[in-house]
Amino acid sequence: MAFELPALPYASNALEPHFDQMTMEIHHGKHHNAYVTNLNNAVKGTALESMSLVDICKNISQYAPAVRNNGGGHYNHSLFWSTIAPNAGGAPTGAVADAITKAFGTYDAFKEQFTAAATTRFGSGWAWLVVVNGELKITSTPNQDNPLMDVADVKGTPILGLDVWEHAYYLKYQNRRPDYIAAFYNVINWTEVNNLFAAAK
User: Fold this and answer.
1) What is the pLDDT of residues 136-169, one digit of tens each?
2) Is residue 27 a contact partner of residue 8, using CB atoms and an 8 Å limit?
3) d(CA 91, CA 102)
């Protein structure tokens, strides 16, 4: 069964003014769609066609670069769209809030560490909040890698990710990655992050 581009769970202009409509349309409809198309081309006629994206990521070192780049791109963006939302953001609630306090001390301390991970990722990549043995850690990965992959420095289950490729923010923020990162905190969908946290534990 071919991998498919998931629909955005909200209108492309729903995250204004934090994430602009044109960027969302290009990011989802062009960039993410290309990862899906290229992944399907890369796995066509192989056993990977019937594997889950998670299982592919977990053994990514066994596969061709096209599978790593495009499989990662598909997984990462699918998670990204689901963990941002309109009328969201602010401080976390529920079990994730408790886990953030346990791991980082305060929400502000979490933001400081997550911002640092996103800001200092050289070139293209992602910043992540991951579950490792039931506890939260912050990490980052290059390109379209993610912490599910057996090549990751910190391996765990992602529950929140921020895309810091320039295509994610350049139309609105140009080279001001810190402004884009700051805007991200206004659209985090803590309800979905809590759902992912519960499943990861």
Assistant:
1) 999 999 999 999 999 999 999 999 999 999 999 9
2) no
3) 15
For the whole model, what pTM was predicted? 0.97
Q: Please, what is the angle between helix 94-104 and helix 190-200, to 10°?
A: 80
Angle at 86 between CA 105 and CA 35, to 5 degrees: 90
Residue matched to tokens 């953030």: 100
Q: Judge whether 76 and 161 are in contact, CB under 8 Å.
A: yes
Residues contacting 124, CB < 8 A, separation 6+:
142, 143, 164, 165, 166
Residue with tokens 């598909």: 74
* Beta-bridge partner residues of 135: 132
pLDDT tens by residue, 34-67: 999 999 999 999 999 999 999 999 999 999 999 9
Q: What are phi and psi of 134, to 5 degrees?
A: 85, -5
Tokens of 179: 């402004």
